Amino acid sequence: MERIDKLLSSTGRWSRKEAKELVRQGRVLADGRAVLEPEEKLDPAARLTVDGQAVDCSPFVYVMLHKPAGLLSATEDSRQPTVLDLLPPELKKRGLFPVGRLDKDTTGLLLLTDDGGLAHRLLSPKSHVDKVYLAQVEGRVDEGDRAALAAGLALADGTACLPAGLEPIGDGSRCLVTLQEGKYHQVKRMLAARGKPVSALHRISMGPLTLDEGLKPGKWRFLSGAERAELQRTGTLP
Ligand code: URA
Fold first, then answer.
1. pLDDT tens digit sequence for 166-193
2. Sign of torsion, CA 219 221 223 224?
3. More exposed terminus of the chain, fewer Cβ within 10 Å: N or C?
4. Is 171 a known active-site residue?
């Protein structure tokens, strides 16, 4: 059993003070019954609503962020701003971390969560979860590049990559690259190995999760119930 104000603030949507206020204002129902005392203890499995909207008090939080250029994909750094700095303090306190890193200058989809098991499943190459990137290159990618990535490329330092997808867009100065692993600077190093250095990189999707076009760079939102359910079905390790 857990205090109602604690349950509500654990979602990261409200501070403890705001949660107490919501309860006192009679805006919170548990299994259809108004809860009016912030101290009241409830079963965390109770069906909670605030202003008639269902509230998910599951133990983990999942956030979709449109990473802008210029921020580190890290939880903290002594000198440079990180993606965590885009979140409100209640959420930062939950100990969220980015699922896989994007380079400082890479933009696009970043999933933040405190669900370590899910992160592991999404990132493990054994799970075969596609990560799709839109790359702008110097020069033009061609059929030779597509075939080389499909065969499994060796990077300049000899590191072997798993087979990857490459789909030229238009004249080939842009392309979609699909990876099932995440080596350091992988897309940039793969395309550099083909003599087509990347000038801009943007992640579009990770497994079933696609960057919401309505999210401007630097903005975030919680995943919907459907998105969370899809992610939980993704990347089951053998
Ligand atoms: N590959 C890269 O080179 N950079 C990223 O940020 C992600 C994938």
1. 999 999 999 999 999 999 999 999 999 9
2. negative
3. C
4. no
